[in-house]
Structure formats: C-alpha cells, structure tokens
Records
---
Amino acid sequence: MRVRRLIAAASVAAIGVLSVAGCGNASPDVAAYVGDTRYSLDRVDDIYDDAQSRFTEAVRQEAQQAGQTPTPEQLRADVTRQDVVDLLVSIELGNRVAQAQGVQVTDDVSPEQLAGQLRIPPTAEYAKLWTRWLNLSTSLGAQLPPAQLSDDSVMAVYRAIAKTGAIPTGLGVAEVRQAFGEGTFVRQASALSTALTEEADKVGTTVNPRFRPVGVPSVVSTGQSLVFYSLPYIDAAGPVTDISSPRPAAGDSAPVAP
C-alpha cells in the first residue's frame, strides 16, 4: 500500500513552538501568529466543527444502514482544537522551510487514503490538512541529515506514542531503545524539529496560551495500522539537535526508516 510505504519513510515529525521572543502580536481572538500569518480562533473553530459534523453524519449513516443507534460518545470524533492548531502552525512553518530550501513537496498521499485511518471523512478540511502536513513533512524529512539518537529524543517520542495507548507505558530507556531498533524515525523527528523550531524563531511565532505548548502532528506505522499522536514542545534541553537545515535536493538520499 502506497500510504504505508510513505509512512515508513516519514515515520514521525517533531516541532517545539511555545512563544518566540520578538513577536509583539497578541490578541485574545487569535490562536497563533507565524510571522505575518494569523490564525484566528474562528478559523480553528470552523475546522474543528466541520470535522465533528462530517464525522457525526458519517457515523449516523453507517449506523442507520446497520439498524443501530449510535451513542453520543460514538458520534464524537477524536479531534480537538489543539490538534487543529498543531496542524496549522506546523504546515505554515514547514512551507516556509521548504520554500527557503527549495524542497519540492510531493503529493503521494490523498485525503481518501488517510480517511480510514483518521476516521474522518476525506471531505473534511481536517483530513485535507493532515494530508498536506504528511506530504510536506515527508518531503522535508527526506532532505534532512539524521540527528543524534539521544536518550532524551528516544524517550520523548516514546512517551508521546505511549500516551495514545499504542505501546505500553513504564518502559525504561534500554527497553525503549531495543523496541525502536535503529531509531531512524526518532533521528528524523529530531532533525525536523530543529529545522522548524529555528524557522519559528526566525519569523517570530506567538501562540495563544490556550494552545501552548504546540505539538507537531505525528504518525507512525505499527505495520498494521497508523498511530496518530502529538509530540509536545521540546526545548533546547530536549531532543532538539544542532542539525537544522535540509540538504540541497539534488544528489542527496533520504534516511532509511526501519
């Protein structure tokens, strides 16, 4: 399946954005500023409400065909406004990095391919944003030199994935390193985190306290399904490394994920 091959290559992405000094923007009706780009709370609400309504309608139709009545819990999508802000900020910063470095973004994944895993109809803007981010982060990641595989970076990714319930909690560093193998996806996550965080600092980024810390939308394949999660803000003491700039596109090879 093409999506699975792409996920195997992309694995995860990480970005840390809280509030970058030098940006004087601050308004209670704004979710985030990235340079001169402004994302209003209304915009976030619109994307969130659209995802919820389209999900609800799809569940109702499916239940009706099966002669069942869905519960209120079943009618709510596993999407939050924080998820929306994470996507908007990550895409904006990622686009800026790609443009500055001359990275060509491919369109290998479509909303239709992700819809089943996201459990969100492909017509929802949320599904389209996720698709844009996955294609963008994969293209950027293919040009990034892998970062060092530190204990902090390994455990940061582990804790984020464990929070979803996809893997057991309470493991130590040695156990996690053994489970992650070569950890190529962690190296890629740290390298991408550095590039995007530096871009946030360069252009000036301010996030409404309601949505701090920003986490990057991240995904990893179990081999049978995709796990979507958010890797929260990681400061300079975390897995962010000195590696920050994509290599020139021509003549370089992408890191190989496990």
---
Amino acid sequence: MTLPSDTLAHITALTLAHYEQHADEFWQGTRAHDVSQNIAALLDAIEAAPPLELLDFGCGPGRDLKTFKELGHRPTGLEGSARLAAMARSYSGCPVLEQNFLALDLPEARFDGVFANAVLFHVPSQALPGVLRQLHATLKPGGVLFSSNPRGNNQEGWNGERYGAFHDWPAWRDYLLAAGFAELTHYYRPAGLPLEQQPWLASVWRKR
C-alpha cells in the first residue's frame, strides 16, 4: 500500500515530537552507550586520508559527533529535532544541520563517510529508497555509509509514539544495493551473544 504524502509527513512529525518532548531523558538514557564497534566499522572502511569529512545522520544530542571530533575528524551532524540539534551543537561544538529526513537538502559529494546509527529505521519503507539515494549522493566517490538498525521481519508501524520499520538482512541489502551501494560487511550486535539476543543489524557500504 502506498501512503499519501500527508500521512508520511504526519508520521515524521509525531516521531520527531516524541524526541522533542523527551530530549533530556533520551540523552541520559543513551549518553553512556558504547558504539565504538560501529564507529570503528565506519572509519576502518574509509580509504581517504584523515582528517575525514563525516556526516552523523540523526546525531541526537551529539555523543558520537564529539567522539569523531576528538579523533581528529571534521564531523557535521544532522538532526530533525530542534532540541536535540541544539544539545548536539552545545555538547560537541560541531555544526549541526536541522533537517527533516523526508525533506533533506544535502551537499553533493561532500562527505567521506556517513554514520547512520540507530536512525534509518524511523524512515517509512516507502520513503527509504529516496533517503538512501540522497545519502549516496552526498558521499564522495568511494565514500562509506554505516547503518545500524533494530532488525525484524520487515514489519513496520507505531511503537508507542515512534514509527519504525524493522527489516531483515535480505530486505535491507536489497534497499542498499538498489540505491547504488556496494556491500562491504554486516554484523549483529551486541557482540559475543547468540543471534536471538542480538537485536541490532549493522552494515557497511561503499558508494560505487
């Protein structure tokens, strides 16, 4: 079923409103999360010489922006919630674009890498191909996209006040290949646990 544009806009507005209203508790609940495995997966795949131009897509309050900056790179954030964007600027000292994921305006061939950690699952599957094409376009030739999403059986809908689409690996791979990416690797998180206890699907892709 194809959703009308006003329904997609409503989905986005309600999901962003949740983050806007719960920005402080979201920060407290996520600031200590260890995503060093994911950061390394992105950086290790980039072939350009540092310092790297990086886009933290859906940067939230700026935890990973600050990490990238401390590693000597030049990160830019992108966030749809005004409160989270302001928090990210204050915490990281990095520039943060305030953009709706369904109304992106990204520079062409600007970034060596895009870090999309725990964010693209909020994009309705109908809109996902367009978002991925724009991420592909904002990468330099040979640039790298990292993504991590809660996995599922290709169901989507509301989870409380937030909308989510939960893809399995074959479906996610098809979306990325169709957008022009070449597969590098994928893995499940947290590391060291049985698959049934690894709810996160992480993957790394290169712009062809």
---
Amino acid sequence: MGRQWHLLGVTVLFAASAAIATDVPRFLSPSKFWGQLVYQVKPLKPEKVVALTFDDGPWGTSTRQVLQILKEEDVKATFFVLGKHALMYPDVIADIVKAGHAVGNHSWSHPYKSVTAAMAKQEIENTSALIVKQGQAQTRLFRPPGGNLTTGLVDYAKSKHYAIIMWSVDTLDTRPNTTAAQIVERALKGVKPGSILLLHDGGGDRATTRKALPTLIRRLRQQGYRFVTIPELLQLAVKAPTRKPEPTPAPAPEPSLGPAPLPTPKSLPPPELTPTPPTPSEPRLEPPRMPPN
C-alpha cells in the first residue's frame, strides 16, 4: 500500500503537467518502431555509430559526474530514468535535457514482478509526467526494468506507441567486483555499427562505470565510431520524409486518479536527500544479460 499511496500522491502532483507544449523537446521514434523491441539498429547508410545509454538515475552526484564526463568528451547519450529517483533530484532531468541528451522512461519503481494493468499505467504515466514537469520534454522511449518483458509494463508501453529500447551490448557494469578495464573490454568486444550499450548512472555506487567511461569513449572513437542518442540512432534506420514529417504519437493521457480521498500535495512527505538502498528482501537493480534479437 505504501508504494501505491506514493504513486497516487504523485498522480495528484503531476496530472496537470501531462499536457505537452508544442515547443518542448520530444524524444520520439519513427513510427516504424512504435511498439517494437529494439536491441540494435542497422543504419540505412553504412556508418559506425553507437548509442550510450544509462539506466536507474538520476542518482545525485553520480549522474552529474557522468554528465560532466560526457560534456568534456563532447558526447550525447540517452538516460533512462526512474520516477522515484527523479522525484529526489528535481533539477537533474532538466540538466540532462539542456545538455542535449535524450531521456527515456524506465518506470517509476523498477518492478521486477508482474503488476496489474492499472499499476503499469501509473508506473509509466507518472514517470512521463514527471519528465514533462522537470525536463520540459516528452518521451516515447521505454526500457523495461531488468529487460523483463513479462511484467505488464511493456504491454502498456506498446499500447501507447513507445519504442521498447533494449540493448545489444551489456557492459555488466553493475556486477560486483568488476573493474573499469573489464567494462571497457566487454563494450569493445561486442560493439558493432548501430549498437546500443547498456551502462548505469544510478541504482548504487557507479564509481567504476564513471572511471571506465572516458577510456571507453576514446577507444570507440579510435575505432571510428561516433556517438548518437537513441532518437538519432532510430532515425538513421528510416528514410527521411519527403512530403510530410513522421506522425507524432498522441499526447500521453493524464495519469489516472485513484479512489478518493487522495493525499494533497502539501501532505506528501518530502523527498529523501539520498536514494534509499534496497533492503535485503528487495532485488538488486542489476539487469540480467540480454542477448541481441
């Protein structure tokens, strides 16, 4: 009930923000990818492009340090954010968007187990509404927690024309005792033109990921790769429109309100200053390795 209460409270906070202005950034996909699983992309023109993606943030200082590394290396990436973490760090998504990176939806609470259709809607819509409020941006990119396709979240995301963004290269950067050198070598071993690399900026101590990131970027550049966001990568797989632009998915419906009475925004507890680590009974935020499709 605690998590449901919190989601319902957030619904009240952000229902009014679900309407999307026409001039905000839109992290969408060509209609070819609406409701589709995407593990990697084959560009129409042979080109060595790669997309770096980061999961489980925002995570305070960790995400900001990742942003600083990307700025220094002049690289754009895509961040798949958790709603409950974004609520803790209300300024980080805006900083991600302002820096030219893309944002995707990674659910609200990172559930591994199956959820009801109503809860799936809340997990996704409340996170998207928060992205609108904090980042002034719309997204139709969704990455399921742990890569799990059977919790009910993917079914809902597909029904709303989200592209389901998986990955083709898992750097295993959350694996215990992994080293920065191992992260780099795993990425280089699996990369190919159109690859999507899985990394993490949140969900725990990501110092090893941050240590590996500059070397990984430079090694990929030495091999001739350039870095693109997920929307840019998807666009490289379709022909440019000649007469009219790709249709835009309908704006997300406002998150559904739960049964009255609901807590008012003033009665909501203040966000925690730092993310609460999982208890021993909770699963770790470490996705399993997913094979390319």
